[in-house]
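User: Please run a holo structure prediction.
Assistant: Happy to. Please share the sequence and the ligand.
User: Here you go; the ligand is S-adenosylmethionine.
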Amino acid sequence: MNKSIDMICPICGDTLNIYDRNLSCLSNHTYDIAKQGYVNLLPVQNKHSLNPGDTKEMLLARRSFLNTDTYLPISQEVIKTAKILLQSTPCRKIADIGCGEGYYLEALKHSIDNCDCIGVDISKEGVRMACSRDKDISWVVSTATCLPIETNTIDLITAMFSLVAENEFARILKTGGHIIEVTAGSNHLIELKQIIYDNVFHQSKKPASIGDAFTEISCDNHTFTFTLNNTDLVNLLKMTPHYWRIKKEHREELEKTPQLTLTADYWIRVLRRK
Ligand SMILES: C[S@@+](CC[C@H](N)C(=O)[O-])C[C@H]1O[C@@H](n2cnc3c(N)ncnc32)[C@H](O)[C@@H]1O
């Protein structure tokens, strides 16, 4: 648990003091640090299901797929952007919200000097897996819509293919702090969708408009192609919501496909806190 990230109690909002085995506020709300190193700061009242977020099966597939570094160009673009945004910030505090099993935050932390990082995801399984990537990152189970992070303390938020909770992001960011938001573009994994769905309608996908607390600094589309073998293709399918919608015959077709060339199409948008 990184003691340089200022955390707050998800129940009363008071400062959380970090001890070796737990986090605790003045009102004595206490949260144990799990043996893997993460802390669960998702009270039942903020949970809308028993095990919210991505499932273990999705996360194992995501980890196997991401560990092939097929999405390294995405990670590298985010790191390049983060380095520019943080160049005049001496001690950098970074929060990756919806961090999944931690692939992007691990890469970011190892590429940015002098930074303290927190990874947050609503999926306990994801956060548990993320711990094995870097013990010096604070890995926390929480919802993006009620973040256990002190107001006005974060320099950079990354939201990689995950929810942008505008109000909470505005609250935890310092004035002049940034969000790097990565979202899927219109042709993202289009070749996979063409196998899964009988009709693929062209949707023009762009990041949604954002509230008054932020100024949009840039919004750029990026594409590249990559070829997957059957194992990685099935992992890619399992880590997406398409997996839950696919018909049996289409899944069987995919499971027999020896390799497939796919398009990665994504937006990187940078927002600055006013
Ligand atoms: C598409 S995945 C992306 C994961 C990771 N950023 C990546 O790209 O590998 C979206 C993630 O958001 C998490 N998530 C969904 N709703 C959330 C919420 N309300 N608060 C925090 N995380 C959430 C899911 O558990 C999942 O890990």
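Helices lie at 56-66, 72-85, 103-111, 124-130, 166-172, 190-196, 230-238, 248-256.
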